[in-house]
User: Which sequence fits this backbone?
């Protein structure tokens, strides 16, 4: 389902959108695609940040375990 909305853009942005849209597409289609890609990127960044936080938390524990194991090794 599509919902009509109104936005204000600079004339430069409109000219760039029109150049991208060409004769086969519409401004709305170009803007919708740009917004969809932007939202997907932002969601990926949020997911990656959460994943990084989980990995960082696990890394601290794993580093402690590694140091403990290395403490048992005998030097040659």
Assistant:
């Amino acid at each position: 389902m599509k919902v009509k909305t109104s936005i204000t853009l600079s004339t430069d942005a409109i000219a760039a959108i029109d150049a991208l849209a060409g004769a086969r597409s519409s401004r709305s289609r170009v803007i919708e695609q740009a917004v969809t890609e932007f939202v997907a990127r932002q969601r990926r960044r949020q997911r990656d940040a959460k994943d990084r936080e989980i990995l960082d938390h696990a890394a601290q524990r794993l580093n402690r375990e590694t140091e403990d194991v290395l403490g048992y090794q005998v030097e040659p």
User: Anything to note?
Assistant: The chain has a mean pLDDT of 92. The chain is about 75% helix and 0% strand. Residues 19 and 69 are 62 Å apart (CA to CA).
